[in-house]
């Protein structure tokens, strides 16, 4: 494998060039990303998707966590415009993955929360370690769920489960995630990488044109919902509650920095 770090992202390519890995974060802050790294992720996914040699993208987190969302230290004393821009960068990254012409597979360890959950849901397939958890605990932070955030949950889990997860903010374990449709497989943690590697190798062996056509076909089926939820009529956060919640979270969470936004 060859790799090239880009701030909070690392890109690694198999010797054949057919399978490319994107690692989220650097292992600190539970791989929570600031806005600039969500924008970098969007650019890298578009670049890799345009490569003729890449057949599959794999998204993993550094260390024992997939992604805890957005780095809330990025929002300390930030003006509302900067916060809104951060959420726009997140959505840009998720859309880049959904629009990528090659399959994107998420390998989830630890936690995929908030923006980390949305990152996983934007991928085509999700494999979770049995010890992992996933969810959208954003309501307690005063983050206002966007139509696009809700649509990704509805597409895999239906409206009732989406309401329950957004209203309560609870994280679910891997077994529950598979039962609800949030993940495709749960695997013993020790076996997760090998299972993911077998899956993506099997995809990479298929005719590229057929794989591209399959992804385009599924994307076409989902396009009406995505178009209907692309615009967000609300701000990303409730400002007064959000600023207090960020301060409280960072004040209480020095032992587990990061966020679930």
What would you report as the Rg, rounded to the nearest angstrom?
Answer: 17 Å
**Strands, total number:** 10
The total count of helices amounts to 8
CATH superfamily: 2-enoyl-CoA Hydratase, Chain A, domain 1
Give the proportion of residues in helices: 40-55%
What would the principal axes of the Cα set say about the shape?
Answer: globular
CATH architecture: Alpha-Beta Complex
Report how far the terminal alpha carbons are from each other.
32 Å
Beta-strand residue percentage: 15-25%
Please tell me the total number of domains.
Answer: 1
Strand numbers in spatial order across the main sheet: 1-2-3-4-5-7-10
Order of helices and strands: EEEHEHEEHEEHEHEHHH
Weakly predicted, low-confidence segments: 1-6, 253-258
Q: What is the overall pLDDT average? A: 90
CATH domain topology: 2-enoyl-CoA Hydratase, Chain A, domain 1
* Name of the CATH first level: Alpha Beta
Structural class estimated from helices and strands: alpha/beta
Instruction: Tell me about the largest β-sheet.
Output: 7 strands, mixed
